[in-house]
């Protein structure tokens, strides 16, 4: 489980998170939804230990993010792989660096995603690079899986492939999966729980199926409502 | 498979299996996909599929045999009951919609008969 207790974080004058209290349970896929600049990425980066909160506490499995870095498989929004690397080199690096690498899972998803090991990161298309990045985190048996905007700027067919790979690669058990995105459509059917965040504040938290039942609306429609009302409060 | 995202997905999964059974596409004893396979095919969270399968088990619509898979448990009687329930829902929805458009019941029945007669002629 991941826990945020009264967490605030600013970057200069920009308040990214404002006294956020939230929990992410293991064994579930949680979607973190919100417009650009809402604070989604900040939540993920705090868990990954990339940034530290200004105040409040972030607990990953009861420990600090720094201490738990090895248990976290993090897919950043930016292209973080060396452009001269081949997919094989990237995979070998991950395998050497992380003890939770699963080679058979890697092989299975490699062929499902129609990737090739000799692909060079800097030379392939954006969509192929997104699939490579995803493959490298899904091939790890990490207790925490963080996907930061995995669909950003990707064409619709590739997005579907990525969504399918997420399901194929879903480990269940106690793995906590967090997916942050502003594009809800692809993952409507993928998430167990949802967190709607805007302007650094949590606007709504709930179970996806429960919300659908209560409101007779899709998550995308609920999000529009939540954020429309949010902006009216200004 | 495109589910309606404004309704609980696990209910729609169950409805899909109900329809298959009603249409006799699936019969008692037939094997249905494993939860994992089904989740991959329809691209739905495996936890949601698990919930649907669990409910179907509770309803005795399906049964899971350890090590072998999940099989249809619904026999003729359950199939007929499900068909009737689904039909009732359809008809209620239709009547509600037509009445909300302002049609009188007599007129609804007449229009329905025309539709059904036309269809027979087409066939």
What can you see in these coordinates?
The longest helix of chain A has 14 residues, at 219-232. In chain A, helix 3 runs antiparallel to helix 4 (126-138) and helix 4 (126-138) runs parallel beside helix 5 (156-168). The two termini of chain A are 34 Å apart. In chain A, strand 1 and strand 2 (14-24) form a beta hairpin. In chain A, the strands form two sheets. A six-stranded mixed sheet of chain A has the order 5-6-7-3-8-9, sandwiched between helices. Chain A has a three-stranded antiparallel sheet with strand order 2-1-4. Chain A is globular. Chain A has a single domain, classed as P-loop containing nucleotide triphosphate hydrolases (Rossmann fold), CATH 3.40.50. Chain A has seven helices and nine strands; from the N terminus they run βββαββαααβαβββαα. With 234 residues, chain A is of the alpha/beta class. Chain B is mostly helical and 123 residues long. Chain B folds into two domains: 9-74, Arc Repressor Mutant, subunit A; 77-122, no CATH class. Chain B contains five helices and three strands, in the order αβααββαα. In chain B, strands 1-3-2 form a three-stranded antiparallel sheet. In chain B, a hairpin with a 3-residue loop joins strand 2 (62-65) and strand 3 (69-72). The radius of gyration of chain B is 18 Å and the shape is elongated. The two termini of chain B are 29 Å apart. Chains A and B meet through helix 5, helix 6 and helix 7 of A and helix 2 and helix 3 of B.
């Amino acid at each position: 489980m991941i826990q945020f207790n009264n967490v605030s974080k600013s970057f200069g004058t920009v308040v990214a998170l404002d006294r956020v209290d939230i929990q992410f349970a293991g064994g579930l896929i949680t979607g973190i939804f919100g417009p650009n600049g809402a604070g989604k990425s900040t939540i993920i980066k705090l868990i990954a230990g990339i940034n530290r909160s200004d105040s409040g506490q972030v607990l990953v499995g009861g420990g600090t993010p720094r201490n738990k870095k090895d248990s976290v498989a993090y897919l950043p929004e930016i292209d973080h792989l060396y452009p001269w690397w081949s997919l094989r080199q990237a995979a070998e690096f991950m395998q050497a660096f992380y003890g939770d690498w699963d080679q058979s899972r890697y092989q299975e998803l490699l062929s499902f995603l129609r990737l090739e090991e000799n692909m060079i990161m800097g030379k392939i298309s954006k969509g192929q690079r997104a699939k490579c990045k995803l493959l490298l985190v899904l091939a790890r048996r990490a207790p925490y899986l963080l996907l930061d905007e995995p669909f950003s700027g990707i064409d619709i067919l590739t997005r579907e492939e990525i969504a399918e790979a997420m399901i194929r690669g879903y480990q269940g058990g106690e793995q906590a999966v967090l997916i942050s995105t502003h594009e809800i459509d692809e993952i409507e059917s993928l998430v167990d729980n949802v967190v709607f965040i805007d302007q650094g504040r949590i606007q709504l938290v709930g179970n996806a199926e429960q919300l659908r039942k209560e409101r007779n609306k899709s998550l995308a429609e609920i999000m529009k409502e939540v954020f429309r009302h949010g902006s009216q409060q200004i | 498979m495109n589910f309606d995202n404004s309704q609980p997905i696990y209910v729609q999964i169950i409805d899909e299996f109900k329809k298959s059974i009603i249409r006799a596409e699936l019969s008692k004893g037939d094997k249905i996909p494993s939860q994992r396979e089904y989740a991959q095919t329809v691209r739905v969270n495996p936890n949601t599929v698990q919930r649907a399968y669990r409910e179907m088990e509770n309803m005795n619509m399906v049964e899971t045999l350890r090590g072998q898979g999940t099989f249809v448990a619904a026999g003729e009687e359950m199939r007929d009951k499900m068909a009737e329930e689904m039909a009732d829902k359809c008809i209620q929805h239709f009547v509600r919609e037509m009445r909300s458009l302002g049609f009188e019941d007599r007129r609804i029945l007449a229009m329905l008969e025309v539709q059904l007669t036309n269809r027979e002629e087409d066939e």
